[in-house]
Amino acid sequence: AQSVSQHNHHVILSEAASLELGCNYSYGGTVNLFWYVQYPGQHLQLLLKYFSGDPLVKGIKGFEAEFIKSKFSFNLRKPSVQWSDTAEYFCAVIPATGANNLFFGTGTRLTVIP
Amino acid sequence: DTAVSQTPKYLVTQMGNDKSIKCEQNLGHDTMYWYKQDSKKFLKIMFSYNNKELIINETVPNRFSPKSPDKAHLNLHINSLELGDSAVYFCASSQARVFGYTFGSGTRLTVV
């Protein structure tokens, strides 16, 4: 069965620090990959997605992610975080074939200290 | 215009009651979903509904039942509520897997 792992449960950074959140998935076939953000008390919003082409994808608010197929990874990065980036970040996977179900990782809580 | 809307936003009810959460999407998407987010923020799919085909996560108790009067609506009905049902429930919709899902704002259910 497919699974998504986010090994960082809680990350605390100071403003202007660089961010990298890890995401690994286990699935034998082709997948589409997503990062969602959930600000406190709000719903999930799509940050970025990858389904084919350039493995380095850019999303909203200065975030980017790199798909490394050989490592089954899709890490999220941002060169300089802001206090407003404090949120929960979820990596998610949809297999390219079969049921169109989005499987989430356990999430990483990011706290940015001003 | 809200793309995926859920009502109510908050729901507090007693154990044993029956309640419903409504979801509507105006995106013209073919598939709708219900997710449960527990206190540890873990998101677990409960149901997906596409063109009258219902796919149920086998771990969901049969007290939970989705009802879809039409393509734009997928309501969640819960019978005999239990304390463990307390969570945030998110509705979502999608058109194709490459686009991901659009989520509603969530319904925080508290069972007392």
Structure write-up:
By secondary structure, chain A is an all-beta fold. Chain A has no helices and twelve strands. The model of chain A has no long low-confidence stretch (mean pLDDT 92). Chain B is mostly beta strands. Chain B has strands at 4-7, 10-13, 19-25, 31-37, 43-50, 53-56, 64-67, 75-78, 87-94, 102-103, 107-111. Chain B is globular, with a radius of gyration of 13 Å. Classes of the chains: A mainly beta (114), B mainly beta (112). The A-B interface holds A 32, 34, 36, 38, 42-46, 49, 51, 88, 90, 92, 94-96, 99-104, 106-107, 109 and B 31, 33, 40-45, 48, 50, 55, 90, 92, 94, 96-106.
Précis, in short:
The complex is a heterodimer of chains A (114) and B (112). Chain A is mainly beta and 114 residues long. Chain A has strands spanning 3-5, 10-14, 19-21, 24-26, 31-38, 44-50, 56-58, 64-68, 73-78, 87-95, 103-104, 108-113.
| Radius of gyration of chain A from CA coordinates | 14 Å
Structural class of chain B: mainly beta
Q: How many helical stretches of chain A?
A: 0
Shape of chain B: globular
Backbone structural class of chain A: mainly beta
Strand content of chain B: over 45%
The whole-number mean of residue pLDDT values of chain A reads 92
Q: Report the portion of residues of chain A in β strands.
A: over 45%
Number of helices of chain B: 0
Biggest interface and its residues per chain?
A: A-B, 26 and 25 residues
Q: What is the chains' assembly state?
A: heterodimer
What's the gyration radius of chain B in Å? 13 Å
**CA(first)-CA(last) distance of chain B:** 34 Å
Report the uncertain regions of chain B. none
Helical fraction of chain B: under 10%
What is the H-and-E element order of chain A? EEEEEEEEEEEE
- How is the main sheet of chain A built? 6 strands, mixed
